[in-house]
C-alpha cells in the first residue's frame, strides 16, 4: 500500500461517526449537544512551540516560563532544535527542576526536520525522552506535490510525531493554494492522532479557512502556534486565537485550550497506540 492510498483510507470510520462528547469529533454550530463554543483569547492555556537560548533564541527556559506565566498561561512547550543527545538530556533535567514546586509547567518538546522521505533523523531512544515531538518539512528538496504529500503522510504516521508544523501550519490558512495535498495529510493526521499547527503570525493576510474546517470535519486537533523565539512574542497566541475564532472552529478542537496534563496524556496515548500498531 502506498502512502498516498494510506492517506486516502485514513479511517473513514473515525471521521464523522464519533459524538463530540467522547472528545474526538468536536461540535459544529448545529450540534445537538449544544457544546459548540468559539475560541477566545482566554481559551488558550498554553503554547506548544517555542525556542530557548539552546537553539538560537535569546532567552533562557526560566525567562520564557516567567514571561508565559505573567501573561496568564499555564504551561509552555519548549521545542528547541539542532540539539545533541547530551543537550536534550540536560534540558530534560533542567525542566524537571524548574517544574518542581511550581504551578506553571514547562513541557519538554523538540523540533525535528523530517528528511526527504519523511523519516525522523533522531533515535527513538532520544525522542522518547521528550513529552512531544514537533515535525517540520521546511526544505522541499525540489519535490513534486505528490512526493511532498507522501513525505508529510509518512512523517504524520511516525509513532513519535505529535504535531506537524512548518510549512503545514502556513498551509492551514491558505485553502487549496498549497504545494501539498492537505486533504490527504489531514486524513493521515486523523488516523495517527497527530495535531496540526495553525500559524498565528500577525503578518499573514488573505486567510482561507478551508483546511481548518476540513480538520474539524476529520477530527484533527489544531494547535495555535506562533513559533516563539523571543519572550516578547509569546503574546502572539492572542492574535492566533482571534484568527481561529474567525474560522468558526470549535474551542474543543484546539489542543492548547486543554490543560498541561491533558495535553501530555493526548500525546502519550496516541504515541503508545501507534507504537503497538507499527510493531
Please describe what this structure looks like.
This protein is an alpha/beta fold and 279 residues long. It has a single domain, classed as Alpha-Beta Barrel (TIM Barrel), CATH 3.20.20. It contains ten helices and seven strands. The chain has helices at residues 3-8, 61-70, 85-99, 124-127, 145-157, 168-171, 182-192, 210-218, 237-247, 260-278, and strands at residues 46-47, 75-80, 105-113, 132-136, 163-164, 195-199, 222-225. It has a seven-stranded parallel β-sheet with strand order 1-2-3-4-5-6-7. The relative contact order is 0.18. Mean pLDDT is 84; it is low at 1-26.
Give a quick set of tags describing it.
alpha/beta; TIM Barrel; globular; disordered N terminus
Provide the CATH top-level class.
Answer: Alpha Beta
Largest sheet: 7 strands, parallel
DSSP helix count?
A: 10
The CATH architecture name reads: Alpha-Beta Barrel
Radius of gyration: 18 Å
Shape: globular
What's the N-to-C terminus distance? Answer: 17 Å
Measured as a percent range, the helix fraction is 25-40%
Number of spatially distinct domains: 1
Strand content: 5-15%
On the 0 to 100 scale, the average pLDDT is: 84
What is the fourth-level CATH superfamily? Metal-dependent hydrolases
Report the oligomer. single chain
Q: Briefly note the structural class of the backbone.
A: alpha/beta
- Give the beta-strand count: 7
Low-confidence stretches: 1-26
Strand order of the largest sheet: 1-2-3-4-5-6-7
Amino acid at each position: 500500500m502506498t502512502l498516498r492510498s494510506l492517506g486516502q483510507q485514513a479511517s473513514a470510520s473515525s471521521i464523522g461517526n464519533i459524538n463530540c462528547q467522547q472528545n474526538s469529533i468536536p461540535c459544529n454550530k448545529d450540534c445537538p449537544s449544544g457544546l459548540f463554543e468559539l475560541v477566545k483569547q482566554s481559551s488558550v492555556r498554553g503554547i506548544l512551540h517555542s525556542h530557548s537560548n539552546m537553539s538560537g533564541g535569546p532567552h533562557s527556559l526560566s525567562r520564557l516560563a516567567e514571561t508565559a506565566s505573567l501573561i496568564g498561561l499555564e504551561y509552555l512547550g519548549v521545542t528547541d532544535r539542532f540539539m545533541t543527545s547530551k543537550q536534550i538530556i540536560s534540558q530534560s533535567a533542567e525542566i524537571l527542576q524548574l517544574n518542581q514546586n511550581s504551578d506553571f509547567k514547562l513541557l519538554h518538546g523538540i523540533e525535528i526536520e523530517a528528511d526527504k522521505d519523511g523519516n525522523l533523523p533522531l533515535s527513538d531512544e532520544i525522542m522518547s525522552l521528550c513529552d512531544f515531538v514537533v515535525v517540520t518539512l521546511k526544505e522541499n528538496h525540489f519535490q513534486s506535490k505528490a512526493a511532498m504529500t507522501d513525505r508529510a503522510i509518512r512523517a504524520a504516521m511516525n509513532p513519535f510525531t505529535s504535531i506537524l508544523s512548518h510549512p503545514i501550519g502556513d498551509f492551514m490558512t491558505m485553502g487549496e493554494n498549497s504545494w501539498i495535498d492537505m486533504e490527504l495529510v489531514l486524513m493521515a493526521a486523523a488516523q495517527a492522532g497527530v495535531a496540526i499547527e495553525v500559524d498565528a503570525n500577525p503578518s499573514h493576510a488573505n486567510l482561507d479557512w478551508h483546511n481548518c474546517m476540513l480538520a474539524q470535519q476529520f477530527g484533527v486537533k489544531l494547535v495555535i502556534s506562533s513559533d516563539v523565539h523571543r519572550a516578547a512574542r509569546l503574546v502572539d497566541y492572542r492574535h492566533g486565537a482571534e484568527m481561529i475564532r474567525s474560522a468558526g472552529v470549535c474551542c474543543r478542537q484546539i489542543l492548547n485550550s486543554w490543560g498541561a496534563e491533558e495535553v501530555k496524556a493526548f500525546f502519550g496515548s496516541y504515541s503508545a497506540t501507534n507504537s503497538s500498531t507499527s510493531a
